[in-house]
Amino acid sequence: MTGTRADRRAERAAVRADRSGSGPVLEERPAARFPGAAAKFALFGEVLMIGLLVLLVGVVIVTLPVALAAGIRHLGRYIAAEDSRLALFWRDVRAGLAGGSLIGLIAVVIAAVLAVDIILARSGMLPGGVVIEAVGWTGLAALAVGLLIASGAWDPHSGWRTAVRQVPAIVRDDVRGLVFYIAAVALVVILTWMLPPLLPAALGCAVLAVVAVPQRRHGR
């Protein structure tokens, strides 16, 4: 009886390992393209955790680019079932901190200028206020999307300058993918506006979107 129960437990464990991609497969079949994403609930937990980490590292705003970049790289490794220890996340944070903080500072300055233009346009102090306000909101959206794409393109070896330079080419090569990036930014804004405690989950979903968009393009 004891042996039978042990065999059943071992069989159930083998089935779980097979389904999640964390262990040997029970039968021959093509390798999963994203073995780390096989366990949906575990992936959901990882997305929430990385959203919290991105919020923690990016809480001073200027460090948001490096937080996003480290989170994107971590989630990419996790989905590919590669080494996804948190130590590697913090290693990426350290590697990208100097350049990422500079990019973040530049983004903050640009966002502040655009925000002032929007406020002045709404006050009626500027002629053509409606147009200026529309340009301001468009600029903020473009800044956020560009920051997200650059964070996804960042690599510790090539650095932030190369990542920023790659943004126009990434958009040009996959215009349809741009819609997903815009949707990711909109998701963060809308969820945070509706319920601020959802910000970590929204950031995690945005990170997941940046990981998924290039894979969709490569899989066509």
Unreliable stretches covering 5 or more consecutive residues: none
Quantity of strands, as a count: 0
Instruction: Bin the strand percentage.
Output: under 5%
Count of individual helical segments:
8
Q: What overall geometry do the principal axes of the alpha carbons give? A: elongated
Based on secondary structure, the structural category is: mainly alpha
| Number of spatially distinct domains | 2
Based on CA atoms alone, the radius of gyration comes out at 21 Å
On the 0 to 100 scale, the average pLDDT is 85
Tell me the series of helices and strands, N- to C-terminal: HHHHHHHH
Note the main sheet. Answer: none
Distance from first to last alpha carbon: 52 Å
Q: Which percent range fits the helix content?
A: over 70%
Protein name: MoxR-like ATPase
Keywords: Membrane, Transmembrane, Transmembrane helix
Question: What brief labels describe this structure?
Answer:
220 residues, mainly alpha, transmembrane helix, transmembrane, MoxR-like ATPase, membrane
What does this structure look like?
It comes from Microbacterium oleivorans. The chain crosses the membrane at residues 47-72, 93-114, 134-154, 198-214. This is MoxR-like ATPase. This protein is mainly alpha-helical and 220 residues long. It is built from 8 helices and no strands. Helix 3 packs across helix 8. The longest helix is centred in the middle third of the chain and has 38 residues, at 86-123. The mean pLDDT is 85.
SSE arrangement:
Elements: H1 2-20, H2 40-57, H3 64-79, H4 86-123, H5 129-153, H6 159-173, H7 175-194, H8 199-218
Helix pairs in contact: 2-3, 2-8, 3-4, 3-5, 3-8, 4-5, 5-6, 5-7, 7-8
